[in-house]
Predict the structure.
Amino acid sequence: MTRVKVCGITSVNDAVLSAEAGADALGFIFAPVSRRLVSPAVARQAGLSVGPGPARVGVFMNQALDEVLRTAEAARVSAVQVHGPVSSLYVQAISGYYPVLRVLRPADLAAEADVWTDVPGVTLMLDAPEPGGGIPLDWAALKAAFPSGAWLAGGLGPANVAEAIRHLRPAGVDAVSRLEAQAGVKDPAAVQAFIRAAKTA
Ligand SMILES: O=C(O)c1ccccc1NCC(=O)[C@H](O)[C@H](O)COP(=O)(O)O
């Protein structure tokens, strides 16, 4: 069954409603550019409020390695998601501490996808060039190059996630924009419908 990550959690309430709806992973964004920025303290509290079931993923973009590791430790996340044009050594260093979701854009696939094939602890995620921007990828065009075992993000929501899964059969799906009532605040009905649609696709 496709795993589901609900990203951009900024409160205990949204963590609990996402976990109760069946989310396999909750994303906490620590990239300062994000409108869904959350503090490590709130992320830690939200993670504690849902127990050990869902993975707690700290999301970072172009941040120094020591900042990533310190923040991940303070927030008590169980995995780290890495966006941006960082080196493979940087990703490998993080994977020594946490399972890593390495995010690539379709344009990066040719150069970087093979680097991570069969590397323990590193899983690929395909996302749109603007993270959190709500723009879907061209699933049909991606089909031939989509890496086995990779996750899919980019403009997914209740209305289109089943179609995306049918095209690419990702290991997991991830979304934020289309699950919100406003930036950083979840729409409970959208979260529930998204998870139901992904799990039954
Ligand atoms: O969502 C953000 O604001 C964000 C900012 C900076 C780095 C990452 C960010 N989000 C990461 C995610 O995992 C999103 O869920 C993913 O990009 C999909 O977003 P959307 O297209 O809005 O569903």
Remarks:
- Residues 16 and 86 are 32 Å apart (CA to CA).
- Residues 188-199 form the longest helix (12 residues).
- Helices lie at 12-20, 40-50, 65-75, 88-95, 109-112, 139-142, 161-168, 188-199.
